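@channel sequence for tomorrow's demo:
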Amino acid sequence: MLRLAILLALLLPATASAKLVFFQTPSHNIGCVYSSSPAYLRCDIRSGLKPPPVRPKGCQNDWTYGYRLGRRGSSRTVCAGDTVLKGNARVLDYEQTWTGGPFGCTSLRLGLYCSNKDSYGFFLSRGHSYRFNSNLRATRIRTPTGKIGCEYQYLPPISIRCDVNGGIKPLPPKPRSCEFDWGAGFGLRTRGKASVVCTSGAINFPPQRTLRYGEAWRPPGFKCRSRRKGLTCRNKVRHGFFLSSQRAYRF
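structure tokens (generated this afternoon):
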């Protein structure tokens, strides 16, 4: 069981000169600590990791409630008898990003996404938590508002898909033979016209790289550009789509 009241000295090993920074999400379900020396980031989730990870080898304590990330390389499951959840820690509001040393964390209504400079990291939420590597992060982007998310599918048939929160406006007719939800966004292959997405799954969730206004995302065969008015994507034959929270269309 997590110990909600612990002495600071019992947290994680740190040198006497280490800087410790605590923060938490608005729901108070996720709490983190950053240490400057040695550099690490640890985040715990009060509701537990879902699905529960495999017990780390040699672990004699709790291992189902947090991840730890070093300066470089992949994250690992925390094995500890304490917690970094602190009720008086600074709240990282939704859509805000915290940075410290080689780490960055973005608070979203979906959950908390953290990574190091190697683009390894983890995502924590009440419903689902996981670790990721740099390859997975490179296939997904989001606009600065977080309202539009895209994913590059590098296995044949090669394609991109972009969804907008609230769906396409105006909502297009239901695609023929579609048996799931439709209208979340558009799909586009390297050739041909864009199609209306028909699926039961979502893609606008971390890990993602933020595509800042004016920047271009160029997965092989495609080009997407982020602007304040929305996101425009094209394929090799100049077919594509435009997405924003107010309107969307194909061309």
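heads up for whoever presents: Residues 91 and 163 are 29 Å apart (CA to CA).
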